[in-house]
Structures are given as C-alpha cells and as structure tokens.
Design goal:
heterodimer, A: alpha/beta, Aldehyde Dehydrogenase, Chain A, domain 1, 6-stranded mixed sheet, about 40% helix, B: about 500 residues, alpha/beta, 5-stranded mixed sheet, 13 helices, globular
Amino acid sequence: MAKAVDLSVPSSNSKIRVHTGLFINNEFVPSVDNPDPINVFNPSTEEFLCAVAAASERDVDIAVAAARKAFRETWGKNVSGFERSRLINKLADLIERDKQTLAELECLNNGKPVKIARDFDISDSVGCLRYYAGWADKILGQSIEIDHKAKIAITHPEPIGVCGQIIPWNYPIQMWAWKVAPALAVGCTIVMKPSEITPLTALKLSELVKEAGFPPGVINTIPSLGPVGGASLAAHKGIDKVAFTGSTITGRKVFEAAATSNLKKVSLELGGKSPHLIFESANIEQAANWAALGILYNTGQDCTAGSRLYVQDTIYDKFVPILAAKAKELVIGNGFDERSGGGPVVSKTQYDRVWSYIESGKKEGANVLIGGEKRSEPGYWVDATIFTDVRSDMKIVKEEIFGPVLSVGKFHTEQEAIDLANDTTYGLAAGLHSTDQAQCHRVSSALEAGTV
Amino acid sequence: MSTTTFSLEFKSETFKGKVNFPTGVFIDGQFSAGAEGTTIDVINPSTGKVITSVAEGTAKDVDRAVKAAKRAFTESWGLKVPGSQRGQLLNKLADLFERHSDELAALEALDNGKTFNWAKAADVAMSIGVLRYYAGWADKIHGQTIETHEDKLAYTRHEPFGVVGQIIPWNFPLMMMAWKLGPALATGNAIVLKPSEFTPLSALRVCSLINEAGFPPGVVNVIIGYGHTAGQAIAEHLGIDKVAFTGSTLVGRKIMEAAAKSNLKNVTLELGGKSPNIIFNDADLDLAVNWSLHGIFWNHGQCCCAGSRIFVQSGIYDKFLERFTAKSKALKLGDPFAGDSYQGPQVSKIQFDRIMDFINSGKEQGATVHLGGEQHGTEGYWIQPTIFTNTKPDMRIVQEEIFGPVGVVIKFEDQEDVLRQANDTLHYQRDPIRAQFAAGTAWINCANSLHPNVPFGGYKQSGVGRELGEYALNNYTNVKAVHINLGQHI
C-alpha cells in the first residue's frame, strides 16, 4: 500500500492529504522495483515537503499496459463523444470545487502565489477542460466527392491510442490540463509523467480523475526522473504518441527516441527567447506594463517570456525608467503572503542557473539597471533584474534564462527591429507595441514566431 | 563545368520520338555539374545496361540549393506571390506535363521498368491531376478568426515554412514528385528535392518544364544524389525547416533522427506497408479476384500500399484461389514498350535480389509456391507473379514488406479471426473484436485506388502525417496566432 502524507498549509490550521504512490488503474500503488523515492521541496523555504514514489521502467510498462487495456476495452472507440464530454466537464467541476486546496498545494510545491495559482492557473485549466469537453462530440471527418456514380470516399478521424505525456514544473496544473483535455476529448488514453520537481498537484488531480468517473487506466500518473520515466515513455513501443513540454535540449532526445523506437507521433512545445518591440507610437504606460508582465509573470519561468526588449531610440530614454519603476513594483515573496505577486524560482538547480546567467551578463559588460543582487534569507529568490547596453552576442541575449531577467536593446528603423527580433533559433512568441495599424500588421507578418 | 545531357531516340511500338534534355544538378534555375564533378549511372532494368550518366549532387550542392531556395523564398516566392499566381503557375506546369505526357511516360518506362501504357494512363495522368488539384488550393489557404473577448482580435495565419526538403522514391518517380511539389508550392514554400538515384530521368525532364512554366529561379531545386550523402544532408540541414520523406521505414527513422539532432525540423513520413486484402464469402468473386490482382501485381508489387496479404474466407477460398491463379498466370510479362505488356522488370538488381531472397525464404520456411517463384527470362530483372499458400503468421513473407509481385493467400474463418490476423503486423499491435483496421486507408470493394483529393498515409510505423487531399496542406504550413489588443488596459 502506498502511503498518504498530510502537508500543513502555512498560516492556517488546515492540512492537505497527498497520496504518494503511482496512480495506475485508478489506484495509488507502490513501485514494483522501489527505486529511491523522489524528494519534494518547498522553494520558498527550501524545506523538505515529502517523498513520492518514483516510477521505474517496469512501472512504466505496467502503466502503459493499463492504458492500452483501457483504450481497447473501456475508452477509445468504446465510449461516445457525449460521454467523454460529460466526464471531462465533471472533472472541470471538481477542480473548480477544490481550487483553493489545489492552489495551496501548487504554492507549496512550485512557489507561485496562492491567489495566482487559483485565479489564473486553475481558472485557465478549468476553462481548458471545458473547452475540449465541448469538442469531444464534434470530431468531424470529411465526405469527398470522387464520382457520384462510382465511389464514395470518407475520412474518419480516430484516436491515436495510448499517449505518453511529459510535462514541466513551471505550470504544473495548467500543463496537466492542456495535455489531458484534448487527448481525452478525442478518446486517447494517457500515461502522464509530471515533473519530478513538482509532482504533487498531478497526484492530487488523479484523485479527482477517479472521483469524476473515468474508467481505470484512462489516465495514469507516474512521477519519475526524466532519464528514467521520460526516456522510457519516449522510447516505449507500446505508446503511439508522445507529447512533451520542456527544454529544447530534452525535446531533441524525445524526438530521437521516438524515431529510433517505433516512429511514434511526436509533438513538442519547447523553449523561447521571445522579443518585445516598443515602437515610438506606442502608448508608453501600457507598453511598459505589458513588457514588465512579459518578463516577470511566473517569475520569468515561462516559455513565452518576453525576455528581450527592443525600444525605438526616439522613446528609449523616456521608456526605460518607466519600465524599471514598474518592474520594481512587483513584490516577490512567499506565496502564502497576500502581498506577493510572484514567488521564488522553483528549485536550487534553477536558482543556480539563473544566477549564473546574471553573473555572465555582468561579466560580459552589460549594465545592471535594477536587481542583480542575491538575498540573504532562505528560499530560491531572484528579484526583477534588467540589463541595458547589451550586445547580440551576449549569453543573456542569446540563451533562454527562465528567470525574471530582461535584456534591453535599442533600434532605429522598423526593419532593424524585425531583424533583431528574428535573430534567434527560437520562435515561440513575439510582441510589439504600436498604435500605427499598418505597422502592426506589417511587423506581425514579418515576425518569425508562433504567437504574436 | 557544363551540364550532362541525355539524348535518345525511341523507336518502340508505343513511343517513337527523340528526347534531349540537361541532366545536371538543377539549382537556381540552372543545370550544372555537381560540386564533386562525379556522376551516377542510370541503368535500364529491362537490360541491366547503363542508359546514361547524370550529375551527382552531394552535401555541397544541397547547401547551394538551400541558399538559392532561401533567397527565392524571401525575394520572389512565399507570401510575396499571391496564391492565385502560385495556382496559375501550377496549372501551367500541369499543362506542360500534359503536352509532354508521352515523353514523360517513355522516360518512366525506360528508367523504372513499368510499362509505357501504365505510366501514361496512371502515373502521368495522376501527376497532372494532383498538380491541378493543388493549383486550385493555392488561393484558399485559410486561417481562422477566433472569438475570445471584445477587447481582442485573435486570428491565425497559415504561413509557408520557408525552405522544405523532399526526398522521394523510385517506384513512382514522376508521380511522387507531383505529390510533393503540389502542396508545397501551393502553400508558398521553396523546395530542395532529391529524387531516387535509381530513377532520376523524369524528374530531370520536369526541371526544364519548371523553368518553362515560369517559376522563379530557386523555387524548385532538384539534386540527384545518394541517400547517405545528399539525403542525409537534407535531413540534417539547419537551413531547411521541414523535411518530407517517402520510402522505407528503416530510412524514415534515420530522417526523423537527423531532424531531431539538427534543428528539430518538422517531419512527415510516408513509409512501408504490409497491407491486408480481405475477401468475405459474400463478395462478388470475379470483382474480388480482379481487384486482388491489381492490389498485388500492379506496378510489379512495388507499392507501399500493395495488398500483399490476401485473406480469403473459407467458404470461397478454393474458388477464389483457382480464379486468382488463372488470372495471375495470364498476366503478360514483357518489354515495357510493347503494347500488350502488363508487367515489366523490377526496378534494379538490388530489388530483384531482395525479392528473390524473400521468395527463397518462403520456400525454406515451408510455404507452398502455388504459382511462380522464379525469375522470368534471362536478361533484366523480371520476376514471375508469385503466389504463396499454406503460410504461417511468423514467416518472413507474411510479416515483412517484400515490394515485389509476391502475394500470400491465407484462409480465415470469421471476422474476429481475420481482424486479429490483419492487424498483426510489425510485431506490434493487436486489436480486438469489432475493431476496424488500424490503417490509414481502407479500400472497400477496390484496391490501389487513389485520388488527388482523398488523404493517404499510415498508421503505426507506416508513417507520420497525410499526403493528398486538403490534409496535405497541413504538412507545409506553420500556424501563427496573432493577438491584437483592442483596448485591454493593465
């Protein structure tokens, strides 16, 4: 029997019960191999929270077999779109019912403020589930005219089968919802590996999966170390499709493993170094607010973070101080404190990474406008940091930092802005601020990014 | 260095005429020698003898082609050219295919070994159909406007990737080229295409037609080269945003691996198959026999979708086998240019040896050679239409893709039995009672019957993505979501 632990919620008398086993076939079970468990920490205090079971390769096999059985017998083509829709909506309702508890658990494990987890992450997740619930009974194919007398041709979209899903630690609940919702809506079954840094809310959500009434094996949750569970899912011959969100470097490994194993379908959502362009016609106050939000939201731990800012020279001197002032307004602190607008970075590893980038920025000669100084108290704190006088070849300008660290540069012409923005191997997002309509359309067309 | 050329005067029963066209690497609208100055011999599979030599392209040529494609995409193609114009050029190219259809069919028969009549009636005809089909899509690449809230306008654009790499096989050289060019050009991409080194001639002839149609230089670049040099260079090129590959599953994996290791380029794959053909007791027997014949022996069995496992319900098994065998025996093997030939040689010595090796394995593993099983004639690479019976599911001839005129006929009892057997391929997945086929295309009362507007592609290890139909457009477009703030202040 896998055990449950009760975690204390700071500044309150309540406790949150978390099951620490692997969730397979709607039950929490221990690993069959008992590797070292995964230790989970609170990034605001650096304190140990609890240990959860880590899945071994054999556990992954068991989970995959459970998902395959469910796909063949109780899910997949055995359940109508109406029923899938009903169940996903039920799950959304339960998450909404328990949003406070889930938000508190998210804050304990990830560090983000409770109110943000509840009103943004969870709210968005509930919305996402309801959105895809609405699609579940509208999976359409085509009927195609060949020759009315001789042939009918139809296309018939079918669920791919068993999907391995690997999600990151920056939005644990939200990434879970984004993965689970569309896969369930079309009838796939899931083996989900949450991040080993933030497994707790995925385990809690698994309880709601069972309560909502999903058949056993439809969703299985197996926290695991990346090189064990993640690698196993990507290379597993019993998995038809792997969906991964995380770093570009790991994304490559997933893609490679899929190729060398069974050519499973792959979708990847990876990193970014997204540019923000501020043109002279922009509303300066609003642009500064959005630019600050773009790099500070979630403490910069966002794949679409606007981490490179380019300001037109004519408004540069006016804009940058306003931006700095707004960035300084953000209170980064313990997520259970109502005043906090942002939390710590998620782990020691990330803390060291982000600070190493800040040091490299200083060393390569960029100017620290605000931030750049470590706190002395426990917790993985990084305060808003802005570099100016940057060059394109600096590490802080080229590489994804994943923290609240912004590089600010200058441009003269629109074309220069576009060239600076597109000078990256990434292409996740880009932003621009301008009140010149034609410029907005010209520039958004020219930006090489999936979201503008 | 100047380009190689190919000249020949055809004096056959089905085609008489002269051909004369450049066969260099085709980059930026020009033919030239390859960077290494080497050539590849083109062999006539009817005789085993060299027809001509064409310029070999290697990694350096791929580099130059990518640069030309990138420049063309940025300056004279992509979204700078409206869809209506891209469509017109594709239609113009289709017109030129039509004008030169005999010549193209003759080159295909000479180089690949399929008969002139089939090449003209099927390969060339479908190529024209596919080009015209995608010409019609070129000005209909639609995104969506999406309601979020009144302070925002959100919409999507479906934009071309940029430079796409395309690698095609030798079984339908011209048609595979059309399937690739059509959707890629309609959506505004520039192309670096590597035809098979075994069958380069029709693709090289098309390059001259591409110039004649009026495509700007650099929009389509064609490089004849080997898989492990030119093909690998395309799969791993950092300047190529998407690669589309049709060929064997083994090479498909390498393509996807190379894409993963280089720049995570988008990948679509159209790979191998071991497709089941199932005949129930209540089928129209003669119709079933004719379609089954077409399913395995058409194109000498060299089809990714060949119906190579023929499952026949026990009630009609004997009758089916008798009629199927009689019709198979009556197929005329002969010179591709003879008017009455049905089947020419297999495409190459390598393929010939592979298929004969499979046939021998069938004999060794104890299957019955019901028909054929030997080489036909003494010159060239003809193989007799071959039927195996009394097979076991684990035999190589039942499990692996042979890609030749070799069918296995298997008796079954009921629907449950046959669905289990049919889905048991690549040692992978068994589906239970009432499951439909785990396949990308299901043919009911027909076989090997494709149309430009119906999607085609594989489940499991037969591929990733779909070609043909509207679905193919997704392979060549990148979705950009644009959010315009109409008044939300923060």
